[in-house]
Amino acid sequence: MSIDIDEAIDWRGHLLDCSACAHLALRDVQKCQPLRACVFDRYARRIDRFFDWNPELASTYLRHPYFEVRACAAKAADIFLLPALLDDPEEAVRWSAARRLPNRYLLKLRGDPHREVRIRIAQRLDPPDLRPMISDSDYAVRQIVARRIAPDLLILMVQDADVEVRRAVVRRISMPGLRILTQDTEPSIRAEAAQRLPIDTLSALANDADWRVRYEVALRASPAHVSPLAKDEDPMVREIAWERLQSFAATAQQEPINISSVISKEH
Hints:
With 267 residues, the chain is mostly helical.
């Protein structure tokens, strides 16, 4: 049997028959409408609209066999009925219930089998409750944790396997964790660490293999550690080093510094 695109279809693929619906009276008072607001439709948007129009019916549909109905009903149902849905087999239902419950109910979902649920839980939990999620199997969850967890716990994430997680860490962590990340295998992480290091600790990075790290040294370090970089192999590092050395000389009200002599003295 071919089905017209404008015909209302239920979640099992059957044509909907309003005449046999238990909510037929609602249609007469414009509180349901085929192809727009129907609890038995296959489309979540239409189910959702049905509960928007009839929130008092939501609690009676929390055990419906179609997960979209349960998920939509959870948005309007009696809040005291929602904890039971945290064990629902469908992740959409679990999250729909969780988003309306106090945070203490979310703790059990930190180990939810579905990554999307854990991502949303990590976004909502209070930072002190995120510690068990530091070792989550999904990098996206750990990224959120790294952005939100208390800074003093970031030391536990400096060796995370994912570079984007470590990037989130390096932007918030303080010493001594920041110093650890100056030895990271990823050059861009070392460069971000260098940008946040105190000036008096930059000299240790003057010989880093990546030009971005050496550039940061040349940009911010003291004169004694900048002058060797005026002969760096990278032109951008050399340029900023020369500019800094000229600036040091001008600040000291000296004659323009002879870069060649400085380099020869250093080497």
